[in-house]
Specification:
This protein is mainly α and 294 residues long. The chain is 62% helix and 6% strand. The protein has one domain. The protein is globular and about 55 Å long.
């Protein structure tokens, strides 16, 4: 069985579990709850397929940039090397260093980098990061990850709605403790499934991205700088979208919950995957001020 087939089969199963999570939550409130859950699941999948890229970009307050931007020029060269359609290119005003790709297919893809990333990395390192994102585009990971993020966020919303906005006879028959457990455990299960979807695809995107950029050291040093910078500058983003980024965004709450919900492999394992060792020695962010702006 090929790695590609295994990843696709695993992803289909996990996305099915995410959708099933919505139905399972609804079933606790009886027949009416199942009906509401079915409608909610259908709407969520439609929205996730057609509008998830717009949701992700709006969440990051991203602004599109054109051919005059150095970031656009870097992405254009990488897309040419990878024989990919030119994606839309965006810059987010976030100070935390990070980047992501989104869209339902390579013809409708978009890539986005934060101002913090553009100020922290040199041109080669930015190429390594954008190569990683275009690898996700090439493998059509972006639809899977964005839809997973959208459904994961929907599970949290649906659990909240059913707990606080009940009122039918079925709702009154549910013990309050059961409702509270659903409110807590529904999003937890969604987070675990999202993490499993994302982690299985990051190593491959690192490898292919490094090939597009021309040298695995570009991405390796970029990842070290991004991880170091992220610890200093938390990112203001819904945790449901963590799987989209090149590195796990750290919220103001830090890393207290450990690796249970990590959507990316540990940095050390990613470096070994890229260059065969754990450190490049480039952990200190070196700013350079190319004048990137949203």
């Amino acid at each position: 069985m090929s790695t590609k087939f295994y990843n696709n089969a695993k992803t289909a199963l996990l996305l099915g579990l995410l959708t099933g999570g919505i139905l399972a939550i609804g079933s606790i409130w009886g027949q009416q709850g199942v009906i509401v859950a079915v409608v909610f699941a259908v709407v969520t999948n439609i929205v996730g397929y057609f509008f998830s890229d717009k949701i992700a970009l709006a969440t990051m307050r991203a602004q599109q940039v054109g051919p005059e931007s150095e970031l656009y020029q870097i992405v254009a060269e990488l897309a040419r090397r990878g024989n990919l359609p030119m994606p839309r290119v965006y810059v987010s005003p976030q100070a935390a260093p990070n980047a992501f790709a989104t869209g339902r297919n390579p013809q409708n893809a978009a890539v986005c980098a934060t101002v913090g990333l553009l100020e922290m990395l040199n041109r080669d390192e930015i190429a390594g990061v954008m190569g990683h994102e275009l690898a996700h585009v090439k493998h059509r990971d972006i639809l899977i990850q964005t839809v997973a993020a959208t459904i994961g966020a929907a599970i949290s919303m649906f659990a909240y709605m059913r707990f606080w906005m009940g009122g039918s006879r079925d709702d009154r028959d549910v013990h309050p403790l059961v409702g509270l457990l659903v409110l807590i455990l529904g999003p937890v299960a969604a987070g675990l499934i999202q993490a499993a979807i994302s982690r299985s695809r990051e190593f491959n995107a690192d490898k292919v991205g490094a090939e597009l950029a021309g040298d695995p050291m570009y991405l390796a040093t970029a990842l070290e700088k991004i991880h170091a910078g992220s610890r200093q500058i938390p990112m203001d983003v819904n945790p449901a979208f963590n799987s989209l980024f090149i590195a796990e965004p750290l919220s103001a709450l830090g890393e207290g919950i450990g690796n249970l919900f990590a959507t990316h492999p540990p940095l050390e394992k990613r470096l070994v995957n890229l260059i065969g060792r754990e450190s490049t020695g480039a952990t200190r962010p070196a700013r350079r001020g190319y004048g990137f702006a949203a």
